[in-house]
């Protein structure tokens, strides 16, 4: 009797999980399917998942439309994302080490000030930053998309500082007794022990930078410098949407994110538990 | 650390190599594709920017190439194309705010008024009337100087307009024994139209299998003007749409939704039209590319409602920011893009009706497999019996209030979803607009005062439209 109830319970759990999984995966399947459909087939009175006829035209149009170099957009997104990840890990880790391990006057006040900057809405900063970049001649370059996200990332510094605080200080003290410098402690003790936090920050940075639409939209005007999200926006206008190429582009754009998720799944979940940010 | 460390030199090296490889791959991909081309030495560069999908952007590139060949190469002016993505004007507005907009910027016509009164764009009346470089306005449709004028002054040029008309399914018309009108000069009367809508609609009990008509809420403006009404009364000090004929005309139109002859606005019209389940749909020109090849379609005018048959066209328009590097070169580039060669590119793409009349009437625009009656689009820019076919809708703050109250937002949505009676719709809309007029102390001279206050009028005594 109890066994039957248990089987019934787990069956119900599986059914619920499968239904929820289908609901979650539905839009992705629809995106994939639509990318292989003809224009009139994407929105139809009788929606169907399987493309009929099956066509690669949307992908061909995406990479060979004569005006938008989509492959180049992928390349731009890739190199900007990689540079920001590398730079952010380096800068945030150094900053976090200072706040977590070094004793200096005004440290806590400086950290409080840093945290306070998190309260400033990003949109408030757009116009002043834009004007500053104009004066510096940096508009229509990748500089605003790479350097500020590296050097001005409060969240990353906060995240790593909190993690560094959990590492016992006895390790540092032992190393100091052995004559190690702070840089040596940072490189040989703190960083190796902080791999989960660094990986989490790397993954969150990847998702954030790879999907960034507003920054490239605002700072770039040369078509050869655009990134994937901006490229995709060309297929959606006020008057109409080219769903086929848009879905084909979204499918290509999502591949790196899926790969990162597959290989760094545990860091995603750890990132959620460490930061409370989904 | 010990050999069990997570960050051994080897692992660090591997990770570094991995990231470096990704970076190299990214850089290599980024190197693919063309590079931007500036102006050759000794030439003047004019940047041109517009939103638009890849098809539209390709057309702009072709228009630029045609304009270069026709006249700009001779003047040593090079247009540099800078496409902007999609449906978002945020970056364009930011560029205007920071003084980095393109020398020649295509924008939403609704934004010209604000940009002009804020002193962001150049007044063009003087350049347009310049005997050596100006336009021969007799060659352009009447709406060329009136469509997006700001209090009668020219702050933009509109080389083409997307005409709105009724797309109809020819097979459904043939099955119903109907012949569609082919000119705005001979549109259907409301009674003819009403009979056609009812004949084309196929119902099974309370369910509609085939709709006779689908329309958007912005037809309300055409319907009201077609009833002999206007949007504003008494030198712009009172909201219009107060005539009983207007209420009657709108009520008849909305009754199609209430009675199941037309779908509510939340229903996607395109799948219905493509599936042959919709006989007539009121749309702009850009949807023609999205209609299924299996549907045999054409276009016809909106009916008389009941006095006149009118439409509401849409236009993106071109402006020269005050920050343009060389305004004269930008104007010449603008003129060249309104010229014959560039207009023919636009006509062949059937992107919009070219304002240049000879091109709008030429085979470049009319000789296409569909529609057979492209003249219905072309006529939408002109006059019938001395009256514009296109509704002369007010702009500026009161124009915005009118649009918010009658065309967009809750009031309009409630009307066309059958939740609001026509009388209540008109009353609420008029109350909102009158409140805005009162709040601003608005009258017919306020618009010019705003222009003067914003330092927009370089030549207050010059008006192209007045000539």
UniProtKB/TrEMBL annotation, chain A:
<dbReference type="GO" id="GO:0005886">
    <property type="term" value="C:plasma membrane"/>
</dbReference>
<feature type="transmembrane region" description="Helical">
    <location>
        <begin position="145"/>
        <end position="164"/>
    </location>
</feature>
<comment type="similarity">
    <text>Belongs to the binding-protein-dependent transport system permease family.</text>
</comment>
<keyword id="KW-0472">Membrane</keyword>
<feature type="transmembrane region" description="Helical">
    <location>
        <begin position="243"/>
        <end position="264"/>
    </location>
</feature>
<keyword id="KW-0813">Transport</keyword>
<feature type="transmembrane region" description="Helical">
    <location>
        <begin position="185"/>
        <end position="210"/>
    </location>
</feature>
<feature type="domain" description="ABC transmembrane type-1">
    <location>
        <begin position="74"/>
        <end position="264"/>
    </location>
</feature>
<feature type="transmembrane region" description="Helical">
    <location>
        <begin position="12"/>
        <end position="32"/>
    </location>
</feature>
<dbReference type="GO" id="GO:0055085">
    <property type="term" value="P:transmembrane transport"/>
</dbReference>
<feature type="transmembrane region" description="Helical">
    <location>
        <begin position="78"/>
        <end position="99"/>
    </location>
</feature>
<keyword id="KW-1003">Cell membrane</keyword>
<keyword id="KW-0812">Transmembrane</keyword>
<protein>
    <submittedName>
        <fullName>Carbohydrate ABC transporter membrane protein 2 (CUT1 family)</fullName>
    </submittedName>
</protein>
<dbReference type="InterPro" id="IPR035906">
    <property type="entry name" value="MetI-like_sf"/>
</dbReference>
<dbReference type="InterPro" id="IPR000515">
    <property type="entry name" value="MetI-like"/>
</dbReference>
<dbReference type="Pfam" id="PF00528">
    <property type="entry name" value="BPD_transp_1"/>
</dbReference>
<feature type="transmembrane region" description="Helical">
    <location>
        <begin position="111"/>
        <end position="133"/>
    </location>
</feature>
<keyword id="KW-1133">Transmembrane helix</keyword>
TrEMBL record, chain B:
<dbReference type="InterPro" id="IPR006059">
    <property type="entry name" value="SBP"/>
</dbReference>
<feature type="signal peptide">
    <location>
        <begin position="1"/>
        <end position="30"/>
    </location>
</feature>
<keyword id="KW-0732">Signal</keyword>
<comment type="similarity">
    <text>Belongs to the bacterial solute-binding protein 1 family.</text>
</comment>
<protein>
    <submittedName>
        <fullName>ABC-type glycerol-3-phosphate transport system substrate-binding protein</fullName>
    </submittedName>
</protein>
<keyword id="KW-0813">Transport</keyword>
<dbReference type="InterPro" id="IPR006311">
    <property type="entry name" value="TAT_signal"/>
</dbReference>
<dbReference type="Pfam" id="PF01547">
    <property type="entry name" value="SBP_bac_1"/>
</dbReference>
<dbReference type="InterPro" id="IPR050490">
    <property type="entry name" value="Bact_solute-bd_prot1"/>
</dbReference>
<dbReference type="GO" id="GO:0030313">
    <property type="term" value="C:cell envelope"/>
</dbReference>
């Amino acid at each position: 009797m109890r066994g039957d109830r248990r089987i019934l319970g787990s069956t119900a759990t599986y059914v619920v999980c499968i239904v929820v999984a289908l609901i979650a995966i539905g839009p992705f399947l629809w995106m994939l399917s639509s990318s292989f459909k003809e224009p009139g087939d994407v929105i139809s009175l009788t929606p169907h998942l399987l493309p009929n006829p099956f066509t690669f035209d949307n992908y061909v149009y995406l990479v060979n439309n004569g005006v938008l170099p989509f492959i180049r957009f992928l390349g731009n997104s890739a190199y900007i994302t990689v540079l920001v990840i590398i730079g952010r890990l380096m800068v945030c880790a150094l900053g976090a080490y200072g706040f977590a391990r070094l004793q200096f006057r005004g440290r806590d006040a400086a950290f409080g000030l840093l945290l306070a900057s998190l309260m400033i809405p990003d949109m408030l900063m757009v116009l002043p930053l834009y004007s500053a970049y104009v004066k510096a001649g940096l508009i229509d370059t990748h500089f605003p998309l790479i350097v500020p996200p590296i050097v001005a990332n409060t969240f990353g510094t906060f995240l790593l500082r909190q993690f560094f605080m959990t590492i016992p200080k006895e390790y540092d003290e032992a190393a100091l007794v052995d004559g190690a410098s702070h840089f040596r402690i940072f490189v040989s003790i703190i960083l190796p022990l902080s791999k989960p936090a660094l990986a989490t920050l790397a993954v969150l940075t990847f998702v954030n930078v790879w999907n960034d639409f507003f920054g490239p939209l605002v700072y770039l005007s040369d078509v050869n410098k655009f990134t994937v999200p901006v490229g995709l926006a060309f297929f959606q206008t006020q008057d109409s949407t080219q769903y086929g190429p848009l879905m084909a582009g979204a499918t290509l754009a999502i591949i790196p994110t899926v790969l990162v998720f597959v290989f760094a799944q545990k860091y995603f979940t750890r990132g959620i538990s460490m930061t409370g940010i989904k | 650390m010990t050999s069990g460390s997570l960050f051994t030199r080897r692992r660090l090296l591997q990770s570094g190599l991995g990231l470096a490889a990704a970076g190299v791959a990214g850089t290599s991909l980024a190197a693919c594709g063309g590079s931007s081309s500036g102006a050759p030495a000794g030439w003047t560069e004019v940047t041109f920017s517009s939103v638009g999908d890849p098809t539209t952007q390709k057309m702009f590139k072709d228009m630029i190439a045609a304009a270069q060949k026709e006249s700009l190469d001779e003047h040593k002016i090079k247009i540099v194309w800078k496409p902007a993505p999609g449906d978002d004007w945020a970056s364009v507005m930011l560029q205007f705010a920071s003084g980095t907009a393109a020398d020649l910027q295509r924008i939403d016509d609704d934004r010209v008024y604000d940009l002009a009164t804020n002193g962001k764009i150049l007044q063009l009346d003087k350049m347009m009337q310049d005997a050596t470089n100006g336009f021969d306005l007799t060659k352009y449709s009447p709406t060329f100087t009136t469509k997006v004028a700001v209090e009668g002054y020219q702050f933009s040029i509109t080389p083409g307009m997307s005409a709105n008309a009724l797309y109809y399914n020819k097979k459904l018309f043939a099955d119903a024994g109907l012949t569609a009108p082919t000119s705005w000069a001979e549109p259907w009367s409301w009674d003819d139209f009403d009979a056609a809508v009812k004949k084309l609609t196929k119902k099974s009990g309370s369910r509609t299998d085939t709709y006779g008509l689908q329309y958007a809420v912005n037809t309300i403006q055409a319907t009201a003007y077609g009833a002999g009404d206007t949007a504003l009364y008494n030198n712009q000090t009172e909201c219009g749409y107060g005539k009983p004929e207007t209420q009657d005309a709108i009520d008849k139109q909305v009754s199609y939704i209430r009675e199941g002859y037309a779908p509510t606005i939340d229903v996607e019209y395109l799948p219905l039209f493509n599936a042959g389940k919709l006989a007539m749909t009121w749309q702009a020109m850009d949807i023609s590319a999205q209609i299924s090849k299996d549907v045999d379609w054409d276009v016809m005018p909106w009916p008389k409602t009941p006095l006149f048959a009118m439409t509401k066209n849409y236009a993106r328009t071109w402006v020269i920011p005050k920050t343009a590097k060389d305004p004269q070169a930008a104007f010449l580039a603008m003129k060249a893009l309104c010229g014959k060669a560039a207009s023919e590119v636009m006509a062949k793409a059937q992107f919009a009706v070219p304002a240049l009349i000879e091109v709008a009437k030429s085979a470049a625009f009319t000789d296409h497999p569909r529609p057979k009656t492209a003249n219905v689009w072309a006529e939408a820019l002109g006059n019938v019996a001395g009256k514009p076919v296109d509704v002369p809708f007010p702009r500026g703050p009161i124009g915005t209030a009118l649009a918010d109250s009658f065309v967009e937002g809750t009031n309009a949505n409630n009307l066309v979803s059958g939740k609001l009676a026509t009388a209540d719709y008109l009353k609420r809309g008029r109350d909102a607009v009158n409140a805005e007029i009162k709040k601003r102390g608005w009258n017919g001279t306020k618009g010019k005062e705003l222009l003067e206050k914003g330092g927009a009028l370089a030549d207050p005594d010059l008006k192209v439209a007045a000539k």
